[in-house]
Amino acid sequence: MPAEASTFPAVAVATESWPPNVRKATRLLHPRGVAVVADPDEPPLPFADNALDLVSSRHPATVWWSEIHRVLAPGGRYLAQHVGPASAFELIEYFLGPQPQARRSRHPDDEVAAAEAAGLEIVDLRTAQLQITIHDVAAVVYLLRKVIWWVPDFTVDRYLDRLRDLHDRIRIEGPFVAHSTRHLVEARRPEE
């Protein structure tokens, strides 16, 4: 999180698309000299061509590679942690059933190809798979009410039978395990 950085460059700007986060980011970052720009999370990014030496992101909803290339100065870098493919799909598919097309979404090979097609060089790509261990259905309800895009129509009433089945499964077999995937991407706009 940018607010946790010990120092900032002379000019630093953060963008945010969700209004409650715009307010929170402004409250945290403005006193540290960082401007916060409300942005709709779609092109164009609110910066001039070649304006930035570094673009960073944590869990971008959509990666606009051509926009990243456009706003980076020659030699500028992009550093981000992206959500990887099929992240938490054991849980998502438990409720929604098989999602074969969505499983390929956010694949690092596809993102590398898109970044390169936009004119960026991939400097480093690291992937990780992390375990999510769920010990009870209360945690599932809490999680699916916070991460609303995993099971978009989730309500306890709508999925009560699946929740009961999951409760019984956890009681008999032990914790439900899902896997979260991430990849760290470092890209560079070549010198011209």
UniProtKB/TrEMBL annotation:
Pfam families: Methyltransf_11. It comes from the Bacteria. GO terms for molecular function: S-adenosylmethionine-dependent methyltransferase activity. Residues 10-79 form the Methyltransferase type domain. InterPro entries: 23S_rRNA_MeTrnsfrase_RlmA (IPR052939), Methyltransf_11 (IPR013216), SAM-dependent_MTases_sf (IPR029063). Keywords: Methyltransferase, Transferase. Coiled coil: none annotated. One of its GO terms (biological process) is methylation. This is Methyltransferase domain-containing protein. The lineage of its organism: Bacteria, Bacillati, Actinomycetota, Actinomycetes, Mycobacteriales.
